[in-house]
Amino acid sequence: MTYFIDRRANAKRKSAVNRQRFLDRYRTHIKRSVEEAVNRRSITDMERGEKVSIPTRDISEPVFQHGPGGKRTIIAPGNKEFVEGDRLRRPGGGGGGGAGEGGASNQGEGMDEFAFTLSREEFLDFVFDGLELPHLERKNLVDLDEVRPVRAGFTREGVPARINIVRSMREAHARRIAMRGPIRRALREAEQALEAEERKDPVLRNPSRIEELKAEIERLEKRLEAVPFLDTYDLRYNNLVDQPQPSSKAVMFCVMDVSGSMTQAHKDIAKRFFLLLYLFLERNYEKVELVFVRHHTAAKEVDEEEFFYSRETGGTIVSSALSLVDEIIEARYPPTQWNLYVAQASDGDNWDDDSLTCRDLLAKSLMPRLQYFTYVEITPHAHQALWEEYERVEAEYPERFAMRQIVEAGDIYPVFRELFRRRSTQ
Amino acid sequence: MTDRKPIATGSDWNFEILHEFEDEIARLADEYRLDTYPNQIEIITTEQMMDAYASVGMPVGYHHWSFGKQFLAVEQAYRRGQMGLAYELVINSDPCIAYLMEENTLMMQVLVMAHACYGHNSFFKGNYLFRTWTDASSIVDYLLFARRYIAECEERHGVTAVEQLLDACHALQNYGVDRYKRPSPISAEEEARRQKEREAYLQAQVNTLWRTIPERAPVDGELETVAGEGEDPLGLHAGGRYPPEPQENLLYFIEKNAPLLAPWQREVVRIVRKLAQYFYPQRQTQVMNEGWATFWHYTLMNRLFDEGLVDEGLMLEFLQSHTSVVQQPPFDSPHYNGINPYALGFAMFTDIRRICESPTEEDRKWFPDSAGSDWLETLHFAMRNFKDESFVQQFLSPKVIRDLKLFMVIDDDQDEMLEVTAIHDERGYRRIREALATQYALSVREPNIQIYSADIRGDRSLTLRHVQDSRRPLARSVYPVMRHLHQLWGFPVKLESIEGEEVVRRYHWPLPEEDASAE
């Protein structure tokens, strides 16, 4: 007796739970590896898994075992030149590890490191572990025009396309029972009476009564037949109502200073910062659009390639970029439908008079509409006017405005974490 | 040979072809009186094979991180190409489940059917260890029960609590079998039906035993022995040790006697113990089991070829694969990784057949009973009634020793040199055979550790004894294991290593404060 079963279509990943348990158990180890990887990797490289090593001793499942030492007898194959009584130097040196074979190890734990690969999803999970964008509760429902039809029970009116057959048939069935019941009962009674009458002795029969009963029965049967199988009352329709939806769309403005003072190293750091934010938003919204705005003395909306890689020189007027962002929001991204995020990177240089304008623009026009504004200043030097003005904005909008200073690439990840750490204290 | 009509050619397979081959193999296996459970052959993907691997061959397993670790290790090795996946996996169940990977070639599928579905399968059904210790018809049900029960425990008591308990049990799972007592076969139905009942009963029993512990059993009363001698008026067995005899089944002792375990925890201990019992025969019959299966796939494939049912191409591919399976690298090769059970087992079974069919003078001297007897009968007899240790002891012939060029080395830490004490010559055969048999004895492979006493009237500490063999000490893993044991027992745990009558080493957990630094 033999059966063949094709299981190929069955669920894969039966071990997913066990794998997850393992990852949870060694969270701290894995996190360390992931953080190192994020600092080390180039940004085009973020969307892949990562190899993680954990010291074997931290991960072993101990059992009682023989340790080295004592006297062991070993049988090994492949003798070439030994004869009985030969004395040999211990291979390797130290302990009784010796010629390999023997009962000591049944685990094959030769290596010091247990290495495995995280999948891309797992890697990103660890990257964003414990992070939460502030105000992720999204836009208030009142000022939203985005709606989605949702089911809301059944109605008696509707279009034929939405007829719910099961419900309708159930209604019809109930109605038929209700309407036929009394008729059936009367019919049964009439039939019994008729039968009783007919069973009587012919002399005692009442012919007119029989006629009457027969007519009654006929009338009742007609009424029974007249009960419709399906009536318009019975019809039920699936009801759909429009429900306002929290917006699942976000737009992220990347604003970067590309003036002469920004070196390629600065830009690389900024790039990573934008990328992290983007990956993060992507995981939290169904749709994320990117708008790249770069500026020196004048601002310009560009595509990603140009944003990161083209070279510019000149002075710096930050407000030009902010007002361009403001215009773009006005024109294309109504705040009622979009979650708006701005990430700005600069080296802190600005035209002296301009910083004040920036604060004005931000505090009056931009901040009320934004979900979040982040500013990173990539400089090892002392802060300038722009930073000071921004600090005032931060004081005004402490929940939605964040700024940090970055000196080198390795700082990005900690800064990013700090900017977006879960605000449990709120 | 001329009228060769192969069932199929090339390396592609489909279900009809597999069916046809299966029919032929079944017919031939029947000729050789291979008695098997019905076969359930499942075709699976690579990924599913890795899953099956990770759960150590249990078709349904409970969840535990260690299986995840296993999975990651397998996956990593496979991805790097360090390891080919086994082509098959077979489970000792009734019907016997065998997994075939979809990317196997036709030859490989046929080979695997012969190897697993008729070789291993008949071994599971026939070998005395499997007959005694496992119940093939109920294992899948029991695994389902175990999985459900542990999932329920996780819901009720939290994943972490269950995980820690399982960690502790796993550390002791090699000590979950009574080697010299016959077990009652496990049956899932029975288990489920009686489990509630048992919980209550067990707890009552433990409560009686530990009645003096305030937080658990405030009832007044006397100690009662588990042996069920009834009420023992205070002090009657004072001075006696508990348990009266050393206990080798650590998990069983814990399950029945650990003072602080909750009923569900005892049940989990029991589940791990029962599964350890299920795997117990496999740990002791690796050489025989693989040797038997390899012998039969080799024999059956050759029969298929002789009858013209497979073509030369397939046969060449088969021989190439078979040769690499039974290869034994010499001890000084970089590929050497101990004695290959496939090689040794195959060589021995093949040699038994040779001894029966065409015995030499030497064979007549060494195997007076087997030489010249019916080979099939003798082979079946060997398969049914031995385990690796006794199989080697009984059947390892001088010829196999010569072929494999086995030699014996003594590695003594009191001697700065290794000594070769026997080689494949007249003086060495018996000693090599003896030593190799011992090498496969579970009692030598694993340290001999038993529960010696539980101080039920004093500090409730538990004392274990490790009987040292040839001065071989315990590995450092003894401390983490003791920690796990302590977690189960709930009170201090001691372990004494004894050599002869003398205690040579003591281990404590928790570490005594003054010793902690010394260790």
UniProtKB/TrEMBL annotation, chain A:
A Pfam family annotated for this UniProt entry = DUF444
Renumbered to this chain, region (Disordered) spans 82-110
In terms of superkingdom, the source organism counts as Bacteria
- Which regions are flagged for Gly residues bias? 91-105
InterPro entries hit by this protein: UPF0229
Do you know which NCBIfam families this protein is assigned to? Answer: PRK05325.1-2 (NF003707), PRK05325.1-3 (NF003708)
Name the family: Belongs to the UPF0229 family.
Q: Which HAMAP family match?
A: UPF0229
Protein name as it appears in the record: UPF0229 protein FHR97_001122
Q: Lineage of the source organism?
A: Bacteria, Pseudomonadati, Pseudomonadota, Gammaproteobacteria, Oceanospirillales
From TrEMBL, chain B:
* Domain annotation SpoVR protein-like N-terminal: ranges: 12-443
Species in which this protein is naturally found: Halomonas stenophila
- The UniProt record lists the SpoVR-like C-terminal domain at 447-499
Q: Which domain of life is it from?
A: Bacteria
What protein name applies here? Spore cortex formation protein SpoVR/YcgB (Stage V sporulation)
Pfam entry (one) = SpoVR_C
InterPro entries, per the entry: Spore_V_R, SpoVR-like_C, SpoVR_N, Ycgb-like
